[in-house]
Amino acid sequence: MYGRKVKLRFLFISLILLILSLSVFLILKSLEENVVYFQSPTEVKELAELNKNKIRIGGMVKNNSISIEEKKVKFIVTDFKNEINVIYSGVIPNLFAEGKGVVAEGYLNDRNFFSATKILAKHDENYMPPEVKAALEEK
Amino acid sequence: MFKYFEPSKIFSITSRAPKYVLTLFIIVLTIGLVEALILSPEDYKQSHSVRIMYVHVPAAWISIGIFSTITILSLIGYIFKIRNFFLISKSLAPSGFLFTIIALVTGSIWGKPTWGTWWAWDARITSMLILALFYTIYLIAWRIYDNDDKVLKVTTIITILGIINVPIIKYSVDWWNTLHQPASINILSKSSIHVSMLYPLLIMTAAFALFSLLIFLMKYNTELIKIKNKGLDRL
Predict the structure, then answer these.
(1) Distance (Å, rounded) from C-alpha A75 to C-alpha B51?
(2) Looking at this predicted complex, what is its ipTM?
(3) Which of A72, B24, B131, B187 has the largest count of CB atoms under 10 Å?
(4) Same structural domain for residues A76 and A24?
(5) Percent of chain B scored above 90 by pLDDT?
(6) Which residues contact A133 (CB under 8 A, 6 or more apart)?
(7) Confidence check: pLDDT of B88 > 90
(8) pLDDT of B185 over the 90 cut
(9) What confidence tens digit (pLDDT) does each residue in B138-166 have?
(10) Roughly what angle, to the nearest 10 degrees, separates helices B17-34 and B7-14?
(11) Based on the domain organization, do A16 and A55 belong to the same domain?
């Protein structure tokens, strides 16, 4: 019903889309390490070797782990499997709190200690009014 | 069937539509803004900066929606040689580009008080920036080639390259660790956004969609007038 040229153009477009998706998939797959914005404590523990470059780690701030000594802030980043101790001095975002997400940029001293040069609060996907949050907590 | 598309017949409808769309847009936008800025509650964690979301999220949705529409129209237009589809695509692009920029800028304004940074090179934000670049090059292509036959091929190629980016934008927050939070609204599972915040979001989305429609109609009418002036009776 459709002309031969129409069919050819359709095949051509499909082929281009297929090949492009495949190449982009392969590129992203091979660059995965650089595409992720931060690594979790577990991923840090599993690193084959520690490099001296600046990296970002992220996870939850462990409950009751924030301590402030002079101008240093210490806290523990956890992904509920592994933990990393972070030490930091500088500006802290408003939403930085225990039990909330955090991304810290800086250098690994070893697999357990991290010196951060910058801290970002990570927001989760939950949006609700304060009353609802209070009601949820009562439950 | 598309051969019977007559510009003058289309024009008789599309030239009268803008004033109705404009009225509707103003009504919906007013309701949306009152809902978003006054009636909706503040967030338990981010307090009033949640209101930025009522512009940011609809803008992002519309910009991605328009790019997908442009791609589908261009591909069908290319395969079946329907010139009209390219004119629709061309007329849709400016509002899509505008909303991409709005999404990036509002995201940046929200990021500063929430994350503590204006910009982060995470997968979601970077892929959205790439979308803005594809819109730019798409619009430039129409400028430099004007209405030569070549432009239809060039813009189709641009949309093919750009559409690969769209699923990356959507799923970047699920595939990789990103600073940007994952989607709050899910069609299949329960949304993690409270109903009182969902309604203003949906109303604002409708308002932005109407705005895109308005800009589209105005652009499209210009295209039809151009064709009329050239003395062509068919597209």
Answers:
(1) 31
(2) 0.85
(3) B131
(4) no
(5) 63
(6) B44, B45
(7) yes
(8) no
(9) 999 999 986 678 899 999 999 999 999 99
(10) 40
(11) no
Residue A41's CATH number: 2.40.50.140
Which residues pair with residue B147 across a beta bridge? none
Chain B residues touching residue A95 (CB < 8 angstroms): 45-46, 114-116
Distance of CA A19 to CAs A13, A38, B131, Å? 10, 30, 20
Domain limits for position A29: 4-33
pLDDT tens across B94-135, in order?
Answer: 999 999 999 999 999 999 988 989 999 989 999 999 999 999
Q: Is A139 domain-assigned?
A: no
**Nearest chain A Cα distance for residue B219, angstroms:** 28
Chain B: closest CA distance from residue A117 (Å): 13
How many structural domains compose chain A?
Answer: 2
pLDDT of residue A64: 87
Distance CA A92, CA A112 (A): 22
Q: How far is B210 from chain A (nearest CA, A)?
A: 26
Say if residue A23 is in the same domain as residue A71. no
* The residue type at A64: N
At residue B1 the predicted structure's pLDDT band, cuts being 50, 70 and 90, is very low
**pTM of the predicted structure, to 2 decimals:** 0.90
B4 and chain A in contact, CB less than 8 A: no
Examine residue A59 and state whether it is found in any structural domain, yes or no: yes
Residues A86 and A63 reside in one and the same domain: yes
Same domain membership, residue A77 and residue A22: no
Long-range contacts of A80-83, Cβ-Cβ distance < 8 Å, separation of 24 or more: A81/A41, A81/A42, A82/A40, A82/A41, A82/A42, A82/A44, A82/A45, A83/A41, A83/A112
The verdict on A46 and A108 lying in the same domain is yes
Same domain for A41 and A28?
A: no
In a domain, A79, yes or no: yes
DSSP secondary structure code for residue A137 in this structure: H
Q: Which residues on chain B are in Cβ contact (under 8 Å) with A126?
A: 45, 184, 192-193
- Same structural domain for residues A41 and A99? yes
